[in-house]
Amino acid sequence: METRVMTQNTQTDMSAASLLRRAALARRQNRLPEEAAALQAALRAAPQDVDVHFAIANALFARGRHPAALAQFRRVIAIAPEFVQAQHNLAILLKKQGKTAAAAAVLNRVVRLNPTLGGSQLALGDARLTQADHVGAQAALERAALLLPAESRVWLLLGFLAKRRDDPDRAASCFDRASKLARMDSVARLGLCMARLPSLYDQSEDIELARRQYAADLESLVASVRLDDPAAVQEAANAIGSFQPYYLAYQERCDRPLQELYGRFVAGVMAARYPAWANRPPMPPRSPGEPLRVGVASGFFRWHTIWKLMIRGWMDGLDPARIQLYGYHTAAIRDDCTEQARSRFHRFADGLSFDAMAAAIRADDLHALIYPEIGMDPMTSKLAALRLAPVQCVSWGHPDTTGLPTIDCVLSSDLMEPEGADEHYSERLIRLPGLGIAYPPLVVDSEATDFAAFGVRPSSIAYLCCQYVSKYLPQHDDLFPRIALHVPDSQFLFINPRADGVAARLRKRLDAAFARHGLDAARHVVILPYLRPGQYVALNRRANVYLDSVGWSGGNTTLEAVAEGLPVVTLPGALMRGRHSGAILTQAGVTETIAADLDDYVALAIRLGNDPVWRATVSVRIQEGCRHIHEDTRPLRALEDALEWLAEGEVQIGVAGTCQRL
């Protein structure tokens, strides 16, 4: 917030200037009654002095009297329309009130009046970033960097923008500069770590380099935070969740050692910051017949993959006589799904700050707390690092070990887990039967869509490649032209992840792969725009074959594809996240399109493309087999058993994923 004590009007009574200086001194010394008295005296001495009105507005703002401050800043601007400091402070107050568009409009006027105000350029960039105007934010922040090269927040926000457009070198450079300018800035240090994990790799060799750089920066971050320094702990705790190792899981590696290093760090910081919530609470006693109180904490009580896969199935399928559900919505976005949950859960909390949410969970005296995912939502990543319930579990919404010592169990799928999977997790692995979730059919109306307008030929054999671009690793690019060589009218349909730069880099990779096989990618590769739910249903109906990604396969996308009878070609990987589609096909009883190796994957895709009779046969069998997915209640009953046994003692996982008590 900008302040000043020198008067604009040289005719102003000097006693007013003296009183303003006295008020400023009183504020610095936290003598608020003296400040208020001096300001009132200054107003009596010079009732039209713009500096007096500005000082009063700033005092009201500092005391949290925001409506009065807002009116006072506007009074100042009415007296002096080109008073840029008052306009700047008005904008800061508007943004604090959540009125970001209004704040950006005011800041636009400020920088037009005086483009050399670095603080206003920074504030404008920040506001535009909040509005998701990334181009406008970049322009304002670049100007701010020229004017305020020693301001760490400028470089922090530039790092965020570079990371968002998947420019890891620029992001790392900006975060590194921010961390050196503000050495206690754990957000910048976290950003530097996570900048090493891009969403897309240009060549396979980059993966191992990124992994080494990430490990080195993570070790440096851990060493930099002293847990016996309250200020450092406060700063680090505030940073947790701002950046997360989300993209680590896409590297097709076992992440347990790195995740345990990160998890111990996060849990240590949060325990030092919140010691009252650091230790496991006692298991609440139960009366005969009393259901378990089980919490679900997530930022995705809304139309989202996590809602589709986990939350709605638990909400509708768990026996209320055994499980009483408590919901904790940790994000701001709400929709009809949020309201469904509010009406169905015994208690539902949302719109709370982090501290209030943690206190609410503890106060509900739960027997168990489940996180559908950890690693995607900022608040849940912080909550999960605390001990808010005696038993804490994570499901497979983000299918990687959390590394958190505060998470006891991972609720997984027996069909998805490979042999020896226990070694992949820091948590105890619970293999629930089948897919490990209840997945009733989704009801989404198809929306008429002209795919020809997007470049999809009506005659082509359309292979749906609908995964997020991060799942497509460069070492597997040659699979597509190998198929195209034998299916001449084939097209491979990818989806733009709402990041044109990333989509362009994927296209460049695919151009090179097709060229290596003497083919023109322009004839075979289509990158569709991001689609609405109804358009996506139409896409599943237009496609002929679903090509699963190798390394991390489709989950909800595969479930939506098989519901439309779309044949799926998949190659199960070494890790659980590479085996979703294989498990789905196994559950449906259609295993003939599960490949044994990469060559078999290509051969199956070619046969499905060229043999319409076999393709139709597989399609019918898949549609018939979907009832084994949609009607399977075994995961619900097994989850109820597991939660009860966890509340009472130990759990052992038996044959075929059944839970057995020790």
Q: Please, could you describe this protein's structure?
A:
The protein is of the alpha/beta class. Among the domains are: 165-272; 284-432, Rossmann fold (3-Layer(aba) Sandwich), CATH 3.40.50; 451-630, 3-Layer(aba) Sandwich (Rossmann fold). The longest helix has 20 residues, at 205-224. The chain is globular, with a radius of gyration of 29 Å. Mean pLDDT is 93; it is low at 5-13 and 652-659.
Topology:
Blueprint: H1 14-28, H2 32-45, H3 50-62, H4 66-79, H5 84-96, H6 100-113, H7 118-130, H8 134-147, H9 152-164, H10 168-181, H11 186-195, H12 205-224, H13 230-239, H14 256-273, E1 292-298, H15 305-317, E2 323-329, H16 336-344, E3 347-350, H17 354-363, E4 368-371, H18 378-383, E5 392-394, E6 409-413, E7 428-432, E8 461-464, H19 479-484, E9 490-495, H20 500-516, H21 521-524, E10 525-528, H22 533-542, E11 545-547, H23 556-563, E12 568-569, H24 580-588, H25 598-610, H26 612-625, H27 627-630, H28 634-648, E13 651-653, E14 659-661
Parallel strand pairs: 1-2, 1-4, 2-3, 4-5, 5-6, 6-7, 8-9, 8-11, 9-10, 11-12
Antiparallel strand pairs: 13-14
Helix pairs in contact: 1-2, 1-3, 2-3, 3-4, 4-5, 5-6, 6-7, 7-8, 7-9, 8-9, 9-10, 9-11, 10-11, 11-12, 12-14, 13-14
